[in-house]
Amino acid sequence: MPRFSIIVPSHGVAGRLSLALDSVLGQSFGDFELIPVCDAPDVPAAAVAAGYAARDSRVTPVFSPPSAGLAGARNTGARAATGAYLLFLDGDDTLVPGALTALDARLAETGEVDVLYAEHERVPWWEGEPANPAAPLFAKAPGGAFAPAEVPEVSGVQLPVWSAAYRRSFLTAHELAFPEGHFTDVGFGGLVTVHAERAAVLRRVVVRHLLRRQGSRLNLPGEHHADLLEQTDLVLTRAAERGFTGALFAQLFAAVLKTAAHPARLPAAGRRAFFRRAAALYRRHRPAGFRRPGGSLGVQHRLLAAGAYTAFRALRDANRKASAAVQRIPRPRGLRTRLHYRLQLRRRIDPDLAVYCAYWGRGYACSPAAIHAKVAELAPHIRSVFLVEPDQAHTMPPGVEHAVIGSRRAWQLLARAKYLVNNANFAEGVVKRAGSVHVQTQHGTPLKKMGVDQSTYPVVAAATGSFAKLLGRVDRWDYNLSSNTHSTQMWERAFPGSYEHLEYGYPRNDVFCTATAEDVARVRRELGVPEGRTAVLYAPTHRDHRTGFDAGLDLEAFCEAAGEDVVVLLRAHYFYDRGVRHGSGRIIDVTGHRSSEDVCLAADALITDYSSIMFDYANLDRPIVVYADDWDVYTETRGVYFDLMAAPPGPVARTPEELARVFADGSYASDASRSLRNAFRTRFCQFDDGRAAERVVRRVLLGEPAEAIPPVRPLAERVPAPAASTLVRS
């Protein structure tokens, strides 16, 4: 029997689950079993847990459906546990180093107690000092074991369940489990307090609890707050049976009154009903001789006991502090434009208007363009308008309605559109109106660190600007697209928000499954690729520690060494698209070409360093070579989410000579290269099956239910667009 069983529910925290599991497996005390609880075998968290289980026999994943909630997940883990003591760790929290050693040592001192409470840190998700709320409660607790009735301030009602170790045989003997519904910690903690005969405290931090940017889900508005009354009734009913009431009564109704005093938590139509039901519970469970607290809280107790909702509401409103910050209305340039925008915000939202933008207005491109085209096909009743910068207006395809960014017309469209689709972000001043739907399509799979994960890299952080403003833009998102589970998990970390992930694939990549040989030939003619030549796309990413474009490679020399039939399609990062052409001879500069997808279709092979284009190009199942001449510098200055050198999509070259050699000897298209590419595609081309745009339009703009959306076609059943050169077809 292991000393500890650590149970880790994982719903909604796949992006941080590995941190929790690592914190357990990294403990110096090794006598434990680790039980991650996942929604189902095919969810992202299950893949993470399975990877750990394959490497460490102490890890045993179990499954509990999301419909069972947090209570069901914890109960499932508890039933699977075999340890002497159970610990419940949230999936985005961590055990501090030495935590299990400290718990074991304290249990050796106190003997076998029913519950051992420990201190914990509440860590702000961004900036601020950690807090240790349990320390004041423990200050006056006895040095040894005690009966909970003797130290009523130390109770499970006031402490989170992940801040304690519970004796499994004690829970089994009293048939204690997590009650269904919300606020299950309150119910479980109260029941443990009622039944426990011996408890103790550990005056040491054991768990670091990450405060979510969105705050606790329990504090959000909704009808779920009625469950607090259910848990209160459950605990106090059981407490009355065992003669343990006074302290728990005060603690539970402090929480009830706190909810009643925050009207935003309760629907307007349900506030009076909540108060009246709470008043009935108060009168039913109030212990004989109960002494109300003093001050304003005591007044609230009296009003609750009397069921005086009108007086309580008046007191609540009088005590609420006026907000010091007035919500800022966006500031478009120009007084008249600002006033015009404010006026438009007062008009009703146009339910049949969609506004698109790509790469901060660089033109008709990427996933917004693909969604725009699919809307014209599936939802022609929706008026679609693209936003572009003034110098890009001439590049818009015929028939595509557009507006110039910053113009009065553009602000009017932004104010009234039902749907706003972007692969970057709309301007700082755009208001997220109630009823509008913002779709973030992203424009790549993250290898390099993104969003708030950039904060520890000074050069990148300085270029990013205010992370607070960045997160303000994230708060406008309703949906965020993902092309693989890796992206889903990294977006969750990099852009914390309340949006919904749509694992539908990237619409811009649909063409890689739908284009024909004629399409490929047409694009090659447009780009000027000589017939019969092997076109190698060279697409380096930008370096945050450099200024200006540097190809990083002598491309003419590469062509000479790689073979006489090779031409290079040079595509610099769009940050460097300033209208300057860098091509000559066998180098064709395609940086300014509107569609990166067309450029990929034209290429027989890809050379890149760390650009996300490799993930998109992998959908074509054509050779990819990684040119990593400065990998160590790049990882130090920008940061990456995984080691590309350990799992590349093809051969890795560190020098120009190595790069030329893999093309000259044909190894870039060898069986070994194909094997690497297959593994890469399995991991990163999960959802790009040619129907991503259709899924987005049907779900978001047509409102079809999730179960009616076309499923993703398996990778083995997809047929990528054919390459022009048969030499490099796999």
Give a brief rundown of this model.
The protein has 27 helices and 21 strands. It is an alpha/beta fold.
Overview of the structural elements:
Helix 13 (335-345) runs parallel beside helix 15. Strands 3-2-1-4-7-6-8-5 form an eight-stranded mixed beta sheet, sandwiched between helices. Helix content is 37%, strand content 14%. The protein is α/β, with parallel strands linked by helices and 730 residues long. The chain starts with a strand and ends in a 29-residue tail after the last helix. The radius of gyration is 30 Å and the shape is globular.
Offer a few descriptive terms.
7-stranded parallel beta sheet, disordered C terminus, 730 residues
DSSP E strands, number: 21
- SS strand fraction: 5-15%
Overall, the morphology is: globular
What is Rg? 30 Å
| Biggest sheet strand line-up | 3-2-1-4-7-6-8-5
Ranges where pLDDT stays below 50 over 5 or more residues in a row are 321-330, 575-580, 726-730
The percentage helix is: 25-40%
Provide mean pLDDT, rounded. Answer: 89
Structural class: alpha/beta
Q: Mind sketching the topology for me?
A:
Blueprint: E1 4-9, H1 17-25, E2 32-38, H2 44-55, E3 62-63, H3 69-80, E4 85-88, E5 94-95, H4 99-110, E6 115-123, H5 134-138, E7 164-167, H6 168-173, H7 184-195, E8 199-210, H8 226-242, H9 246-260, H10 271-285, H11 295-306, H12 309-319, H13 335-345, E9 350-357, H14 366-378, E10 383-388, E11 402-404, H15 408-416, E12 417-422, E13 437-440, H16 458-464, H17 467-474, E14 479-481, H18 485-494, E15 500-502, H19 511-514, H20 517-527, E16 534-538, H21 555-562, E17 566-570, E18 587-589, H22 596-602, E19 605-608, H23 613-617, E20 624-627, H24 631-637, E21 652-653, H25 656-664, H26 671-684, H27 692-701
Parallel strand pairs: 1-2, 1-4, 2-3, 6-8, 9-10, 9-12, 10-11, 12-13, 13-14, 14-15, 16-17, 16-19, 17-18, 19-20, 20-21
Antiparallel strand pairs: 4-7, 5-8, 6-7
Helix pairs in contact: 7-8, 8-9, 8-10, 9-10, 13-15, 14-27, 20-22, 21-25
